[in-house]
Specification:
6 copies of one chain form a homohexamer. Chain A is built from 10 helices and 10 strands. Chain A is α/β, with parallel strands linked by helices. In chain A, helix 2 crosses helix 10 and helix 4 crosses helix 9. The two termini of chain A are about 25 Å apart.
Chain lengths: ~250, ~250, ~250, ~250, ~250, ~250
């Protein structure tokens, strides 16, 4: 089984964190590929940055997904995820999508802990669009700078753990999602310091993708996720054109 | 990995359907065990029957879950599921819980197709309690009798497929859940006749349970899913007493 | 008029509190009967305990409701209530159900004050299932131990009153429900110390039950609360069998 | 116990229907008074008419409620109800408020059947304001004229019953509210022709009011239903001035 | 273009504030008329006062709107607004209605800052009725007295600004509505002291009304906002009778 | 006043429709500019196409908005709208955003009529994200082909009007939005054939944009719509880089 993880951002260090956690979450026989976006920003925390990231995800999938068994959009707010589902007939999974799904399996309400206060609004809008807002207890984000987004989980580990404990004690969280690809892998290290299940988006997405691959391709011949009707286009990259109109 | 599927009903023929689909959904090395409820009714379609089924699930888990790696509550409305999550520190998964989670991963809205009109209200109440109602497009249920609940998927196959197509065409379903343990396995046989993804609750629950087992035990030391506080009790079976108060 | 109050728990002291408040709320000519559960726990505060309590309620009704005019499920989260409504053609009322209904008649939003923080989650899930969550301002629960659940209203009276005042001042409550059968009767004693209406679940349920009895039996020949269809069963108590299939 | 029913409309024939049903729903010792609005329209079915009716209710209460034990606002959309609750320290109950509360006690979802299609929108807006919309299955209204609003229940009885049956069969209603004061009393006559509980708003309001009177006066010293702060006013009737500022 | 602003209260000083801000928001050629209610209270902050104000709005429109191009109901909770829309075929706009609409155009979530804590509940009920509650971040109101409602924006300016800043910092507001006609005009003066857009209800309503006038009259021949059906009435002012039944 | 309308699609014929309706909706002194997307598809009806359109909107604004007073995103689902609001300190308005806002000012519930069934899902997701779903009565879309999206309003006019009437009669619409830029201008021609207000997205957006321009620039120094924090980027067009980081 070959899985492609697309980092919608340009941070190679975060791509590396994603790749490592993906490999640790891989079943025997799963081959992990990770791609950094061709274009974009260091990390997405606003709606404007998410627009760029969404396009970059489509472009990356157009270039690299052709012989894959599943694709993971590896930024927490799932930029371009729903779009890409329309275009591929293999499983396409996002970190937010998968981690709220895993939180659902633990039962009760979940909180999110992330790397900035600003980024939380985007996450919440995505979770509301998925219809999961009634299950969400709170978002708490770092209110502190960091030198490199690829090292924020090391630099600010104690602060992040304190935020997790506040979610449990003040907000009634039954599980906590460490949200944001830059936090990939942290849950493994600190799970025993938090008294409720701790969820890693990359791990969740890997579990979801590997599970669905076993079912074979996804055939959507109708409905709102069927392939977009063929129509005129202009200015798309050659790869994107082929992704929209494969034959 | 050892998985226990508990049929909260007394229908051995349905237990057999569940076991077969579970085995087909098992990863290499997964051992499938299936138990029929000690007490209960032929199949649950009302709130009253669900109360009995919930107790039977706890009793069955108390007797048979001790050396398991995960437990699946194998009736579609998930009787006793949230209760059992509080009592075990291994993954406990329900068919409704898992299948709406899988529908979420396909994107958009899902419909349910079930074996009676009456049973649909219970399903909808459970899905609402999970906070998934905004993702649900419709429920459509058989309005026809059947001789044996274990054979309804054969006796009424064409009618069930017609209901699926109505969900797609009239209700805008992006995926369809064949809901009810008596329909276990049907999705495999008829997937190519329905133009959107078709979801089998037993298969979904197997995928969810096997994914989570890889993470190791679930430790909930606080929150609303922590083990109930120790307190006086009377008239519980010996096994249930031990389930509530393990040491 | 003969009313049966079923305590789904095994605490005789709480049954006595319930009986006393029920008698004070009885109209002339109303005969009050109270039954303690045959099996169960000291008091329900989790989903697991509620499963046992729900079965105990059905069993108790099966044994004692045959010549009654109405039944009250006398624990605040209403275990087994919706199930029992399906099985009896007399009014069946729960404490939560009745007290939120009474709060609705006072107008605006209500808060709940209860005996533990943990128990609040169960209450909120039940109130959400009733569709009343938009009317609920908050839950505040004791964060203190007590020697006997039957005496918590005396031991922790001042703390409970402080919680009520916080609901008014901080949460904007227009009325307050003293939630939990162990608090039965407290509202009468302290109403003048709280500046908004104070609601007693047992009193509310008595008022609701006595009102509906005047209308005669409840005949549900169809709909989701009609009697469950006759079908095979196994291992139920003789009384429960008769409750499910009366003739 | 003295109860005042205020008809917010000018139809004496409807006041008479209300009075009759109220008397049939009265407990021994309850004295029923009914007042027709001093000003207003024949029957309210729009937001504009409801504004006039609301003022008329306050005026009528100002004139006639002084020695009453409870007041019932006897039009189905409850014009002026929440306003009047702020001004009186006795129970003030509305037909919609009470009938949805009674439907809640029957469990599941309710439908409304009314005397015109137009009037249904107003009813639904009120039910949504009460937070009960998730419990509402449907509204169905007469699409036919009638010679006198006080006789519509006789002239169009068969049509009304057909609408009730459609609510059960097509909309999944677990109970039905005959909505509109002009339908007062009809439920008694036709209950045996409808397979789910049938609710009469006047009867519901009588039951609610009589229940609450037993609790004594309602003291709201704070919260959003406390008496409006004293402030300057102009052009109010003498009675209304006294209602706003009693001493 | 001639616009009528109706102050549903009797405070001439507030009418003057409204008139001034309306004139500053007027396009070239727009003629502004402002009317104080014939009857009512100093300022509305409760449901009871809103009932009176709603009737006063209809009466004022009946007397003064005949040659107008649009009417603005100039109290923040929009008393009588929906009623008046049914009765006139010109744009009828309310301050709450228009300011939440403008907040929507700024994006994200808005907070309200008002002149008393009590008044906030009414505002929130109205915003919920409009279906805007998911966009509302918070309400914060003065907890301080003032000598004259027409001068509260001067007397309590610093407190009001502090409340605005709390909405931004603690509640996540993306814009702030200065709510209450007594705050008309304040936004202009203090906009540069608040880091998110500041909304003035009178200005918003002027912009909305002037925009819609350009479209010509509003013809609603059916639907729930069509003119109420002609029917018997009694005790209405001559002007109101003509407003309900124009010919 | 200079307004820029960006067509996120490549259809010049639709840009022309947009420009014409914008000019008819312009106040004296308003200068209308319209730009067709540099890249994209003929018309957006899926999530995948919307991703491309959103990027194209940012690119077009980056190139052409520098001396404008407001920007209108002129496709009905508002691709890139929220993103662009973060990047510009002038009003940025979308057709969906503005037309639901105008429908709100008419009162009650609105329906949408559009050019394909498929496109309706995207519209509904956007309206839900805005929190307006409780105000939406229905979507009805053409189930018929057309030769050119720029002429669909002529080719299928009668069908479109029939859909409008169905919205009124079957779905209870109080107003109707002709949704989709290809329908720009149609409302003017057919308003007198529909018995409720008919809304044109381009006209609504023009009214909203012109109203807000009068207020001056929009200064968002904080909140979720403030400019994205400065951070590393790669592969963006020179214009987009400047849009993200202006100085």
């Amino acid at each position: 089984m070959k899985l492609l993880l697309i980092n919608p951002n340009i941070s190679e260090s975060v791509t590396e964190l994603i790749r490592l956690e993906a490999q640790r979450s891989a079943l025997p026989g799963t081959e992990v590929h990770a791609q950094t976006a061709e274009f974009g920003v260091a990390y997405i925390e606003t709606r404007a940055e998410a627009v760029i990231g969404a396009h970059a995800v489509l472009q990356s999938a157009a270039c690299h997904a052709s012989d894959m068994d599943a694709v993971i959009v590896a930024a927490y707010g799932d930029p371009g995820l729903c779009a890409l589902k329309e275009l591929l007939d293999i499983p396409v999974i996002g970190l937010t999508e998968a981690s709220v799904s895993e939180a659902h399996l633990y039962g009760g309400r979940f909180s999110l802990v992330g790397i900035s206060k600003r980024i939380g609004v985007w996450y919440q809008e995505v979770i509301r669009a998925y219809g999961f807002h009634d299950r969400m207890a709170s978002y708490r984000g770092l209110n502190a700078s960091f030198s490199d987004v690829g090292r924020v989980q090391d630099e600010r580990r104690d602060m992040l753990l304190d935020l997790c404990l506040e979610c449990v004690e003040k907000d009634g969280a039954d599980s906590i999602i460490l949200s944001g690809a830059p936090l990939a892998g942290l849950a493994r290290d600190v799970a025993d310091r938090i008294p409720v299940p701790l969820i890693d988006g990359v791990g969740s997405a890997m579990r979801a993708a590997q599970s669905l691959v076993a079912l074979g391709g996804i055939h959507r011949h109708t409905g709102s996720y069927a392939r977009p009707p063929r129509k005129g286009n202009r200015g798309l990259s050659t790869e994107l054109q082929r992704l929209f109109h494969p034959h």
